[in-house]
Design a protein that fits this description.
Length: 145
């Protein structure tokens, strides 16, 4: 596990965000890991978000990741996601067909405007495993309350 960095301001961050929904819709959680360019974990968290669909949960994870990157003072972000659909929609290659996702895409794009530079790319799910674990742990914690 990478060491958590103490500094609260980072000019460039790498974002891994993922979600889990047990059922579609079902109980859902998000997981986010933010890295500095050297690969050190700057921040990571998981959060239960209630009952929703997998795609809404994936957008919610990305939104929370971008908000965290903003709070950490990032000027540049590189989003690396296991969701090809999210990457294609955010980059404008694929249109959003579900009306309920459109406001989430608008929010993502609004948040991206806060950064000097940003990029988004697909990585294999195995490469972004930790956010999925955090998302699932948040669902488990909620179930065990």
């Amino acid at each position: 596990m990478a060491e958590l960095q103490a500094s609260r301001e980072h000019r460039a961050l790498i974002i891994h965000a993922d979600a889990a929904a047990r059922g579609n819709p079902g109980e859902a959680g998000i997981g986010v890991v933010l890295f500095d360019p050297e690969g050190h974990v700057v921040e990571e968290f998981g959060r239960f978000i209630g009952t929703t669909t997998e795609q809404v949960a994936e957008y919610s994870a990305l939104i929370e990741a971008l908000r965290s990157a903003t709070a950490l003072g990032a000027a540049d972000v590189q989003v690396q996601s296991g969701s090809e659909t999210i990457v294609r929609q955010v980059s404008g290659v694929q249109e959003v067909r579900q009306g309920g996702l459109q406001p989430l895409l608008v929010e993502v794009r609004r948040l991206l405007l806060r950064f000097r530079r940003w990029s988004i790319q697909v990585l294999p799910r195995e490469a972004t495993k930790r956010p999925g674990e955090l998302a699932n742990m948040s669902i488990d914690r909620q179930r065990n309350k």
